[in-house]
Amino acid sequence: MKKLIFFLLKKHLKKNIKFKNIAKNEECLIFGNGASLKNYNLKKFSEYDVIVTSMMYLHNEFKYLKVVADCEIAPFILYKYWRNPYSKKIEKNMKLEMLNKTNRFDHNHNYFLSLTNLFSKVKRKNFNYLYNFKNKNFLPEIDISNNFSYLSGSLFSMIGIAKYMGYKKIILIGTDYLLDTPIIGHFYEKNSYKINKVVFKEEEINFFKKIKKELDVKIIVPENYSSKYFHSISYKKFTNENEVKKNNSEIVSHENLMLLDGLNMKYKIFK
C-alpha cells in the first residue's frame, strides 16, 4: 500500500528538486524554540539566512529574520481533527484554529509540511511537502524531493533541508536539548528547567556524528553552557553582547500567549 501511495503522490515531492543547492550563502542559522531564546536579541542575526520551525513566528523579533525555510512538519496539522501528539487522542485541532488566528502561513517565505496535509483546505503557493515512505530509520541520502527520512523531529528536518539546499556551515541556536545539561521548555513558556539525562536516541546521536563530518556545525549556547554534540560558542562571544533575561510576556504578545495557553498541549504559559 505504501508503495502505491508513494507512486501516486511522488510528483508532489519531486517539486522540491528546485531547492537543490540553491543556497546563495555558505552559512545559515537553524532556530529551535528553546527557552534560551528569551535572553537573546534576534536582531543580531538579521544578516543570516535562517531556517525556523513551529512557534518561532510568534516571537516579537521574528520580523527581523531572513527566513529561507519554515518547517511545520506535524502530520495532519491542517485538518479540523487530528491526533494530538501530547494527549495521543483524536480530538478537535485547536492548534489549527490558533495557526489561522495568528496568520501562520501569510509570510512570503517557503514552508515545509508533512505530505499528510496535502488534502487539507489550507493551501498556499509556497507550501512544499515532505514525507518518509519507508521506515523510521535515517536513510544515508538526504533528499527532500524523494523519500525524506528526517521527519522524526524538527531539528533533524531543518538540518536535512539546510544540507539539501547546499549550506556548508550551520549554526544552531535555541536548540537547548543539545546542551550538556539540557534545558526543557520553550521561549513562549513562563519557566524552564534542567535535566541530567540524554534526550536523544542512539540513532539520532549517530546522525549528529555523521552530519558533523559532512558540514561545519556550531551551536550558540547560553553563558556557562556547552554541547558535547557540536562545537559550542557562547551567545556573548558570537554577538559581542551580553544576554538579557526576559519573560515570555516580553517577547510574545499577550493575545498570542492566551492562544497558546488554550491549546491542549501541556505548555506552561502562565504557571
Structure commentary:
The chain has one domain: sialyltransferase cstii, chain A. The strands form three sheets. Strands 7-6-3-2-1-8-11-12 form an eight-stranded parallel β-sheet. Strands 4-5 form a two-stranded antiparallel ribbon. The N and C termini lie far apart (46 Å). The longest helix has 13 residues, at 2-14. 23% of the residues lie in helices and 18% in strands. The chain has seven helices and twelve strands. The protein is of the alpha/beta class. The protein is globular and about 55 Å long. It has helices at residues 2-14, 94-101, 154-165, 202-214, 235-239, 248-251, 254-261; strands at 27-31, 49-53, 66-72, 81-83, 90-92, 111-114, 127-130, 169-173, 183-184, 193-194, 216-221, 231-234.
Tell me briefly what this model is.
The protein is of the alpha/beta class.
Looking at this protein, list some descriptive labels:
23% helix; 271 residues; alpha/beta; single chain
Helix/strand layout:
Elements: H1 2-14, E1 27-31, E2 49-53, E3 66-72, E4 81-83, E5 90-92, H2 94-101, E6 111-114, E7 127-130, H3 154-165, E8 169-173, E9 183-184, E10 193-194, H4 202-214, E11 216-221, E12 231-234, H5 235-239, H6 248-251, H7 254-261
Parallel strand pairs: 1-2, 1-8, 2-3, 3-6, 6-7, 8-11, 11-12
Antiparallel strand pairs: 4-5, 9-10
Radius of gyration: 18 Å
CATH class: Alpha Beta
**CATH architecture annotation:** Alpha-Beta Complex
Low-confidence regions? none
| Shape label | globular
Read across the widest sheet, the strand sequence of neighbours is: 7-6-3-2-1-8-11-12
Assign the structural class, choosing from mainly alpha, mainly beta, alpha/beta, alpha+beta, or little secondary structure. alpha/beta
Largest sheet: 8 strands, parallel
The separation of the N and C termini measures 46 Å
Number of strands: 12
Share in helix: 10-25%
- Estimate the mean pLDDT confidence: 92
Order of helices and strands: HEEEEEHEEHEEEHEEHHH
- CATH fold-level topology: sialyltransferase cstii, chain A
Our estimate of the beta-strand percent is 15-25%
- Individual helix count: 7
**How many domains is the backbone divided into?**
1
